[in-house]
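[job 4471] stage=fold_predict status=RUNNING
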Amino acid sequence: MNSLRVVVAAICLQVPAAAQASPPPPSQSTPQPQASPIGTLGSNALQSRRRPPAPTGPTPKTADGKPDLSGAWEPNAFRENVDLISTGVEVPFQPWAAELYKQRRAGFGKDDPEARCLPPGVPRMNTTPYPFRIVQTPGLVIIVYEGGAHVWRQIFTDGRPHPKDPNPSWLGDSIGHWEEDTLVIDTTAQNGRTWIDAAGIPASEELHVTERIRRPDLGHLEIEHIIDDPKTFTKSWKFTTHPQMLSGELMEYICQENNRDVDHLVGK
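[job 4471] inference complete, writing structure tokens
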């Protein structure tokens, strides 16, 4: 499992420089899904290799009756991380954002912040192909990420609001609440510097992300990501990922250590 993790991560960093399809024309309309070599390689081929089946059983519950999301999870979202549009997601770009997306694809991802060990931001933290661990307590949910600059998130579920004068950051400010069996996470105050996928979907400092997390059974999660950024997109849009329980534990991984890939990201 550990060797597979290294292979997937290496491909994730290399693919934007070698396997991007022809860029869409800049327009306000939604770009059409594009054929891509990584689309045929896909998450099924890479992430299921040597992967044991997810454990079966009922959803575990906490003492207060809420689903217990705790555990180590693999994102199972390699294609979404590399190229969301190729998976069939419709992204309603504003004209300037469509033009920037076109430029980033033409440059084969050479300016991707994640390739320089900067945090992927939300929602990309959930698709970067490294596992993460959720620690659920009554008033706070913590997510520790193995990759993506080896960072963590604090999601406060104690009823507090977002800060009135936030300090924008890579991961923003997250607060959560429960709607029956779904944890709803509301994230604002990101710095607008992250890409939503490796193909180059942009975002601004107005990005507002809602994650709806369910645990339908013992071995699986379902995360619906709702993207709202009126500066970048003409309307809200969404996509869903399906993490699977990790077979094993998180490893120590330091993106900044011995990073030799940056010199190869020369683009076009």
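[job 4471] summary: The longest strand covers residues 208-217.
[job 4471] exit 0
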